[in-house]
């Protein structure tokens, strides 16, 4: 797919269906798009998943309607598909931290999302150290969770990582890390109509964990340091908005891999982060 144009067209689709329950899996299947690839590209360009974008935009339009005051709250709630006024009030409080009745008073301080636009700029100089490496298919052992496309967000991946770290499972995994990639590996792919996230280590040893295998691929490895969620997001943003427009290689987004080294506290500024961006092999 031609990345930017397709994402722009999909944003138009979402804007036209803000009030609908979009079956993203079905829509992407009908368009002939690989779900994991699209989710990676959309999130890197827009800064959130398609589902998160739809919900944020819907709540923003709701806030504008409440602020202008042309319709009753109950009519607005019904129009946007809420089953009851109480359900609507709870969703509004979760999103903005105020009740619908306080909208006029606090409107200027609300975290609203206008229809997204983004700037794509060819890279002039490297922002992150990067190197190329070919990697044969490699075994990963670890803990996996699976989500529907509509449920998935990067937050879930880091929540799983944090839970594993606090429960001592990360330390246990590292005892088996005798493979070619050193550190905790976050591997995502789309399988059996779900997004699979496996957090683990590369290993050839028998281990009491689930296992999967990476694809054989050429990779560009980008490195940085800082809190994992923000640092990984910035690297992908750089790859898709800048770096890729200077490169001839085609990015393979059917799976993704990030590696954390030195500390596994996701909020630590000392965490060393790598993004292993796969390339299609000519």
Summarize the structure.
By secondary structure, this protein is of the alpha+beta class. It has helices at residues 3-16, 24-30, 35-46, 50-68, 73-79, 85-96, 103-106, 154-166, 169-174, 228-241, and strands at residues 130-135, 139-147, 184-191, 194-202, 210-213, 217-225, 255-261, 272-279.
Describe what this molecule looks like in 3D:
- The protein is an alpha+beta fold and 282 residues long.
- The protein folds into two domains: 1-118, Homeodomain-like (Arc Repressor Mutant, subunit A), CATH 1.10.10; 130-279, Regulatory factor, effector binding domain (Multidrug-efflux Transporter 1 Regulator Bmrr, Chain A, Alpha-Beta Barrel).
- Helices cover 38% and strands 21% of the residues.
- The chain is built from ten helices and eight strands.
- It has helices spanning 3-16, 24-30, 35-46, 50-68, 73-79, 85-96, 103-106, 154-166, 169-174, 228-241, and strands spanning 130-135, 139-147, 184-191, 194-202, 210-213, 217-225, 255-261, 272-279.
- The chain has an eight-stranded antiparallel beta sheet.
- Strand 3 and strand 4 (194-202) form a beta hairpin.
- The chain is globular.
- The two termini are 18 Å apart.
- The mean pLDDT is 89.
- GO terms for molecular function: DNA-binding transcription factor activity; sequence-specific DNA binding.
- Residues 8-106 form the HTH araC/xylS-type domain.
- This is AraC-type DNA-binding protein.
- Keywords: DNA-binding, Transcription, Transcription regulation.
- Pfam families: HTH_18 (PF12833).
């Amino acid at each position: 797919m031609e990345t930017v144009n397709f994402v722009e067209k999909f944003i138009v689709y979402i804007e036209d269906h803000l009030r609908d329950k979009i079956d993203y899996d079905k829509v992407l299947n009908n368009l002939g798009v690989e779900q994991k690839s699209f989710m990676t590209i959309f999130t890197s360009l827009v800064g959130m998943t398609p589902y998160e974008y739809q919900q944020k935009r819907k709540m923003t339009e709701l806030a504008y309607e409440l602020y202008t005051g042309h319709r009753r709250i109950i009519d607005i709630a019904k129009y946007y598909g809420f089953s009851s006024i109480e359900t609507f009030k709870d969703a509004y409080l979760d999103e903005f931290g105020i009740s619908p009745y306080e909208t006029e008073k606090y409107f200027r301080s609300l975290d609203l999302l206008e229809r997204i636009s983004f700037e794509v700029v060819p890279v002039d100089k490297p922002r992150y150290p990067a190197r190329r490496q070919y990697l044969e298919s490699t075994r990963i052992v670890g803990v996996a969770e699976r989500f529907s496309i509509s449920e998935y967000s990067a937050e879930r991946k880091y929540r799983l990582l944090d839970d594993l770290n606090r429960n001592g499972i990360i330390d246990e995994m590292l005892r088996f890390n005798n493979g070619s990639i050193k550190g905790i590996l976050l591997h995502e792919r789309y399988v059996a109509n779900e997004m699979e996230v496996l957090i683990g280590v590369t290993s050839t040893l028998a281990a009491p964990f689930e296992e999967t295998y990476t694809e054989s691929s050429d990779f560009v490895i980008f490195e940085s340091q800082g809190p994992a969620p923000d640092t990984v997001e910035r690297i992908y943003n750089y790859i898709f908005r800048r770096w890729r427009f200077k490169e001839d290689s085609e990015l393979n987004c059917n799976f993704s891999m990030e590696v954390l080294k030195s500390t596994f506290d996701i909020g630590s500024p000392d965490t060393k982060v790598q993004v292993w961006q796969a390339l299609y092999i000519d």
